[in-house]
Amino acid sequence: MGQLFRPLLLIISNHRLTTKEGISQFLPFYVETDQHHYNVKNHYGDLTASIFVDDQEELLRGERSFFDMRKSQKTNLRGEKHKLKVFDHEHPAELWLAVYALCMIFKNRKG
Fold first, then answer.
1. What is the C-alpha separation between 31 and 8, in angstroms, rounded?
2. What is the per-residue pLDDT for 14?
3. Which helix (H) or strand (E) holds 45?
4. Is 107 helix (H, G, I), strand (E, B) or coil?
5. Is 49 exposed, middle or buried, given 0-12, 13-18 or 19+ CB atoms closer than 10 A?
6. Is 53 helix (H, G, I), strand (E, B) or coil?
7. Could you read off the pLDDT of 41-92 as tens digits, one per residue?
8. Element housing 55 (H / E)
9. At 38, is the pLDDT very low, low, confident or very high (cuts 50, 70, 90)?
10. Which of the four pLDDT bands, split at 50, 70 and 90, describes residue 1?
């Protein structure tokens, strides 16, 4: 019987937030596998974040709102809204959604 799903080991880590020139990346995270290096890119002050494989092909793009003044009917809280588009057809979209969500959680925890 063939293997239906090959486990994928992901290592999520972060780059330095600051350089000699100042803050350049708002989400300084990357993901490594045994075959590829994936960068989460979000320039400081930009509301668009992307995940790239080997700094070449875009796999996911997320555009977030600055701040939404309306309260959610479900949570009764205010916050950001995210519009996501997945371009990768090799891996499940849920994988990149999870990486994006983790980066957003880490970003909010650091502040």
1. 11
2. 58
3. none
4. helix
5. buried
6. strand
7. 887 778 888 999 988 899 999 998 876 677 777 877 777 788 999 999 888 8
8. none
9. confident
10. very low
Provide DSSP, 27-93.
Answer: S-EEEE-SS-EEEEE-BTT-SEEEEEETTTEEEEEEEE-S-B-SPPTTT---B--EEEEE--SSS-H
**pTM of structure:** 0.69
Smallest CA-to-CA distance from 14 within 96, 101, 106, 84 is with 106
- Reference 62, options 32, 45, 44, 41; nearest CA is 41
The structure tokens listed for 28 are 């300084």
Contact yes or no for 15/83 (Cβ under 8 A):
no
**59: its two tokens:** 């796999």
